[in-house]
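Quick one - first record:
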Amino acid sequence: MKKILVALLFAPLLAFASGAALHLDKWPGSVADKPALQNGAKLFVNYCLNCHGASYMRYNKLMELGLTEQQVKDNLMFTADKIGEPMRIAARTEEQKQWFGAAPPDLTIIARARGSADGSGADWLYTYLRQFYRDDKRPTGWNNVVFENVGMPHILWELQGEQVLNKDHKLELVVPGKMSPKEYDQAVSDLVGFLVWMGEPVQEFRKQLGWIVLAFLAVLFVFAYKLKKEYWKDVH
């Protein structure tokens, strides 16, 4: 009985692993690009924060992107009164469950969570946000190549335009958006960069510190090796 329960528990994971490999486009951005992260923060606040919270991120943390406190208050802080408050949404969880059937997930660490499940979280998000298409069979009117039968509508459709799946099962832009495809790809890259940064704001410092530690160990190795040779030179 125990073996049967274990098999049922892991069956969905095994089925997913046995499916066709999902092609992910490489995210072209960088968390070191502060202007891109600032634009990503603006897109997140204007489009994502309506439904998705980032409750583990506080507004004052956005000042690390090169913004002043006043810039954050004037341009990014619409769901809080104090700069130290978390980036929560105004809607209640119970209301969201009633509207959408389930509460939209918190996005503070979505890039890291997706990285654990589907390879690179940044690549997954970058591909996902560019693969929406019109589907009249879905309740929201939208579907996604990366996340089939997704419950989330295409919130960025005004920027990208409307895509459809043609007879070759390839995406085709039939209604242009406010942005050209190149501009939209860049906007998505900036948004993904902000999501990646938000999951670990100190990651650039961590990487720099790692190189410093490796350099220190390399120098230490030279001195340790010379000391070892000096210590053992008279030992036969």
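second record:
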Amino acid sequence: MADALPVTPQEEAGLPDKRRVAASFSRAAASYDGVASLQREVGEALLARLPHEAPACWVDLGCGTGYFTRALAARFPHASGVAVDLAEGMLRHARPLGGATQFIAGDAEHLPLRNSMCDLVFTSLALQWCGDLAAVLAEARRVLKPGGVFAFTSLCVGTLQELRDSWQAVDGFVHVNRFRRFDDYQQQCGESGLRLLHLNTETRTLYFPDVRSLTHELKALGAHNVNPGRPGGLTGRARLRALAAAYERLREPAGLPASYRVVYGVLQKES
């Protein structure tokens, strides 16, 4: 069911509203790790892309439940760490599990961090929720020391395309979160003032026995639809049956496919 928050200027501009994003992920804090296998795989792949030099201080931006906060602490045991997330519920979950010196509520587009304070900003599968990617890149550049690294993963167009196409066969509402084009990541990273070390995209596909299993997982992740144009109220049974019938045409031997177009990027602040 859609919440009762009024339409905001961000939504009028076609961007997800940060309050809805924060509230959605706060509600999902307890269920997130139980269904986040893809998120862990993607984050581990980003860890493998990091430069070998150990940072003295790192930031886990969009730390969520703190899984990679703890992974960064284990990888860099002599460094200090700061975990930042927009969702207070995620921070309440992550804080008792440790891994960082500080857990801070903050917006990636307006970081509550001082200039040139860290050697690494690590963020995995958070930037797709940020309306202003250029602002995120500018903030990363600001808080990094010269020579510091900004490493990220995100999602681009093509993500959940099967679900999007199946809904399009049912009605004209926005049922699936919108994602940037890979070209947008290329352009904005190139214009960020950071040196681009690595940028690529790959497709990862999950399989589900039925549509309900997919939508349940998206809700448990906090990643269900928060975009403007989404339908209000409950989705009727007739539409859900029509969705299931449309999606069924895409079934493969392994099940119903759900594709994720993952973007990997590593940038460096010039010395």
